[in-house]
Amino acid sequence: MNLSFELKKRFYDNIQTYTIILAMLAVWILFTILTNGFYLSPQNFSNLFRQMTVTSFLATGMVLVIVTGNIDLSVGKLAGFVSVVVAYFQANVWNTIFPGQPIVAAALSVGIGLLVGALFGVLQGYIISYMRVPAFIVTLGGMFVLRGGILIITQGKTIPANQPGFDQIAQGYLSPAVGWVAALLVVALLFLNMVRSRARKAQYGFEVSNLYMDILGTLFFSALVIVYVVVVNFYNGVQVPVLLLAVTAVIMAYVSNNTRFGRYAYAIGGNREAARLSGINIKRNIFLVFVLMGFLCGVAGIVLASYVGYGTVAAGEGYELDAIAACILGGTSTLGGQGTIFGAMIGGLIMASLTNGLQMLNVPAAYQYVVKGAVLILAVFADVYFKKNR
Amino acid sequence: MADDIILDIRNVTKTFPGVVALSDVSIQIHHGKIHGLCGENGAGKSTLMKILSGVYPYGSYKGTIFYENRELKLEDRAIRQAIEEGIAIVYQELTLVPSMTVGENIFLGKEPVENGVINWDKLYADTRQILEKYKLDVPPNAVVKTLGVGKMQMVEIAKALSENARILILDEPTSALSESEIDKLMEILETLKEHGVTCIYITHKLEEFFRITDSVTILRDGKTVATNPTSELNHETLVRHMVGREMKERFPKNSRKPGEVIFKVENLVATDPNEPSRKVLDGVNFDLRQGEILGIAGLMGSGRTELVTTIFGEYGNIISGTITMDNKTLNIKSAHDAMLHGISLVPEDRKGQGLVLMQPILRNISLANLDRFAGFFRIDQDAELAAANQQGKNLSIKAANLQDRVDSLSGGNQQKVVIAKWLLTNPQILIMDDPTRGVDVGAKFEIYKLMNELAENGVSIIMISSELEEVIGMSDRIMVMHNGRSGGVLETQGVTQEKIMAIATGIEA
To answer: Does domain B290-313+332-504 have CATH number 3.40.50.300?
Structure first.
């Protein structure tokens, strides 16, 4: 295959991805101009990525939920509930059992957060897939239940969650040197993966794609990683929550493409009947999708508690809508069957970029909502329009 | 222009990016006649019909169309305009709203309104009138989803007729109909002819052209090959025009010798899972030998699809009776169980049950087989692709790239993808529910050849078919079903279509 043909093919195969990346760059350029360049300063750049993390953890799970043709409205409140549970245990429990051991307390806090999230996922998933109550209703009910749960635990007050160690989860930074090591490790893995994939393809006797194209692609992603590390190192270094999110997103992308569980999720959403007749256990698969979603709510809730340093009554309010919006901006079909983790991450970044930029411009909160809502609708309209006129 | 020409299609060319779907097509259709349109999948029939019905509006194609001596220009609201002009189309895929009644469906979008409120009495009275006029045996207030496919088709036709259509386009109307329903349809078409309605009739069942049409136009690769009065055509010339080559044998020869009985169904009784009081199977008996093709014939609703989906563990609740394989009693609870026992099912409805249309060909082929390529953590995508490539080659699936979406393929190739998926499971018993429905002649022949090869290699095949010729042409033995019962298993040697019909309709046991 010649180079230009392959370039074209790759371009058309991924046109939706490029469109959304272009949209993101457009948002960045616009705000950079409006803020006289301060928008893309290392400090704001660093904050921007940190701000996207909590809802983006939710979005990584939400993609699979929507792909199976379901929806989860409870994720914001579940993350909020986890954050107040974690705060409660830090403020009232761990210090009485393990006084003076903040690292143990932090580790146990993480454990209890993940457990609570996953258990709630088990409960909702069971009701949805085995008791056949529609996900919309179960998670709507779940949202109310969790809102009550948050009030019960907080008693309407704010609970501090700022143990040393625990605060590092969302507020920590890798030192520049460690950041560089991590970046180089990622680059090395990218190249290793490229070489291994080519070797395997050759072994099976497939037409191996153009070497220069592969190198070019790998170099491009390596460059992105390195540029990112260079920029954030100008501020405090690589942000711990962003690193956690990146790892989570890579794992989730892998799960969705390279495991039976992920493949089945797409098949179920694409054609439930065909999936059923292909011997796929639909109930179990959907159950597991909700368990995973709950677990990720646990992760998000822990990061949230660490991020704000408190468990509050309003914790997680409206995050489910941000997470759903991120998925949809990223090309996830509300009809099920289609959507990528990568797209949802870019979608999450666009949502965070809008919030951040509008705040910088001192746009009142009310108008921020108006702009975000309009952008969401416009993005989906553009997608529909271009698909129709392709 | 002769006065009796109602539709004059002149030099119509329609291109899509990279594809010429229609190239300089000209057809004249005479008033009050039934005009057949014949061609393989991808020959351009559907594209032409979409132009006539306004799906591709005026200006999106080149050439001119004269309708009743004036140029037909379907523009802005092209689809509605076509209906108002009296050009109605009955699509191959049903377009009814399942949860609405027959009457509501027929008058959907044109409900009789008085003071802003629907006049239900008039709606149902008018529905009844239409149904009676054309002798359609369907209750006007029945909810559509409770009807069988055959009746739904009739509602679809009634809906088109209710528009006072002067040209009725029927796109493969019989692909889901039983023989008796086809007879009924033919009667309806004769009635329409008496009323002066012109029909354009598209089908893959060639004998229907000889049965009902006055003339036939053959399309191949987007070009008009020939238009002839039906009386001047015969089966061979039609096939030759369609595929551009002689095709003497419709069914490939075979020389297989089936082995021992490996699978047995005895006195199987099962009920509808959604309606436990209704028996869908009421005493089915048959056995299947190794390397045999067993045909199952029967009318729509005779329980043939219910039988195979019940065996496959995905439909009926078994009340009594036994299913044995290799002398062991089976208790199959799901498709997964069935696959573990070496039983695979190519389902009846390719798009609804066989394929995930939005996904690549590759993923469709591997869907039922991921266990073979995957541990808990990883799917070996290279092994997956290699296996799919192999299947693609074996079945000669015509696709540029297995990463292309499966819905970019023609119907015949889509069906091959479904078959490939199930062959990859290495079945001992392959159940095929109407495997050539909506598939063109060339692909049909390839599927037949494949079935023979599989049987010669020891795979046992159960084939359901709506076409009696196909059942007789392909099967070693034939089981005929009627009212959920098996009406005996016949040796194909010496069996006639009349004999099968007699059992299927309950005249003979």
So the answer is: yes
